[in-house]
Amino acid sequence: MNKNILSVILVLVTFFAISFITNIIGPIFPSLVKDFDISLAVAGFLPFSFFAAYGVMSIPSGILVDKFSEKPVLIAAFAISAFGSLLFALIPSFFMAMGSLFLIGTGMAMLQVAINPLLRVSGGQENFAFYSVLAQLIFGAAATLSPLVYSFLVQGIHKEQSGGFFQLLSDMVPKDLPWLSMYWLFALVSILMLVFILLIKLPRVVHNEEEQVGSWNIYAELFKNKMVIYFFIAIAAYVGTEQGVANAISLFLEKYHGLDPLKVGAGVVSDFWLMLTLGCFLGLALLKVIDSRLVLKIFSVGAVISLTAALFGSVDIALIAFPLVGFFLSVMWSVIFSLALNSIADYHGSFAGILCTGIVGGGLASPIIGLIADLTGDLRIGMLVIYLTLGYIFTIGYWAKPLVNNKTISLKGKDGSDGAKAVENE
Length: 426
Known about the structure:
The protein has a single domain (about 1-425), classed as MFS general substrate transporter like domains (Growth Hormone, Chain: A, Up-down Bundle), CATH 1.20.1250. About 75% of the residues lie in helices and about 5% in strands. The chain has helices spanning about 5-20, 25-35, 40-45, 45-70, 70-90, 95-125, 130-160, 165-170, 180-200, 215-220, 225-255, 260-285, 290-310, 315-330, 330-340, 350-355, 360-375, 380-385, 385-400, and strands at about 405-410, 420-425. Strand 1 and strand 2 (about 420-425) form a beta hairpin. It is globular, with a radius of gyration of 22 Å.
């Protein structure tokens, strides 16, 4: 274990880097629309460019890991991410932004595929569950921190008395595009991670059955299974919901309540990711006493109620309700993913690759929301798309038929006496 501690740290820091870079699009969204003078529909293609990379690269990344091992893939991923970040920082334009975000998304997709098996081996299989939960908490912490760093950097650049670090950033970005400083920061983070990986020795990873990537014939076979299709759509619906809401928060608060995207909007987006992280704790507790399908239905209803309050309530309600949407989304990814893998008997590694490809749904929601908002002149109407994705997630609680259900604790023994007893749902 001791000899692999650096590898564990590397994986956990990689989770932080992925989340920090991925979840900045929402806070920056109003600035992109304003500074590039584009419609909401066109702006929606920016997150689409990022998440489309997941759709293109998730399965090929698994094949690359199988062929070359984790370390070369990690190096290539951060190199691509650094190049994409520098490209946009040096040549800021809308079309360059799309290309840059696709490159950054490609790097993030490669990292997602490579780091989970590495975490299992580095930390020891007996500690994998603990480190997986820790990694998710770090992922959430980075998502919470990213909008705050963005606000801090841009406000620091705006201050006339700024010097030192802020002055350096100010000299590196156009005066009318201070948010571009985040992409210099992304490039720096990627380069530092690249150096870290080059300097340490990673353990040899032998992929278990759930991590093995199958041939293209296996993927073709899996797509003949209607459950595979249903769960692929479910992952797309979840990521579309998460990103659709996160990307709209700051813009919505500015448009309907006149709140500053930098001083208020970024903070609410940060609270959204914080609540999404904290909600995992309640979700973990509920999954010990309630069937996961029922948990999914309860949290889906909670998300719908919170979203409705955010869209149609007062400014004070919106400031609370948007983060609450994040709270109710918290368990959905893990529940949907586990239900999916537990619904087929074989080829879990290949199926996981298909599910990760469904992350492309995160890019589809924003352009659709933007297009409807542009056509109707009302962002609220565009956001009604989220009701459709949440509705689909709610239905999973009815049609999912896992071969193995989550284990719950019965508060009554079989004889009716009190006492906790672990039972498996029938």
